[in-house]
Amino acid sequence: MSTKSIKNCIDASTEQVECYLKLLADAHKAKDNAYCRYSNFQVGAAVLAKDGNIIKGCNVENASYGLTMCAERTALFKATSEGYKPGDFEAIAIAASADDFSPCGACRQVINEFGDDMVVIFEFGGETVINTLAGILPYNFKL
Ligand code: THU
């Protein structure tokens, strides 16, 4: 489990922080399955559903680079295909094979679709950041 200092932007309780660090450990496990032969940059995501289930995903690259799927979207789309809907998720943790990582803009927009109150956990600037989607995507676009 991560030993980095925690940037708790949402006033999460000790119990919640423990739960989110476990989710981050799941994201690290998920990144081992990354198919990333072009960038060699592994990313894993773990989504915590409100029913307690955890759905994992990794990045999946393609020779036609633009067809690459990010880890966050793999996990959320996988969950959707299993019957989960926007509002069904509490949190998403994302981990990469680099010290500094934060979810790309496209994935922030996709996470937003599933709930701007979702807790988002990632490691950046030597810290484990715990924030909400709305906190990392201000002025978020919605229909
Ligand atoms: N990647 C993700 O999986 N999530 C992100 O939020 C940013 C980027 C992947 C896509 C590509 O396979 C690799 O990281 C390098 O961009």
Characterization of this structure:
This protein has a 6-stranded mixed sheet with strand order 1-6-5-4-2-3. It has a single domain, classed as Cytidine Deaminase, domain 2 (3-Layer(aba) Sandwich). Helices cover 30% and strands 25% of the residues. It has helices spanning 14-31, 71-81, 105-114, 133-136, and strands at residues 5-8, 43-49, 54-58, 89-96, 119-124, 127-132. The protein is an alpha/beta fold and 143 residues long. Strand 5 and strand 6 form a beta hairpin. The structure holds tetrahydrodeoxyuridine. Tetrahydrodeoxyuridine binds at residues 36, 39, 41, 43, 59, 61, 68, 70-72, 103-104, 107.
Question: Would you summarize the structure shown here?
Answer:
The chain is an alpha/beta fold and 143 residues long. The protein has a single domain, classed as Cytidine Deaminase, domain 2 (3-Layer(aba) Sandwich), CATH 3.40.140. The chain has 4 helices and 6 strands; from the N terminus they run E-H-E-E-H-E-H-E-E-H.
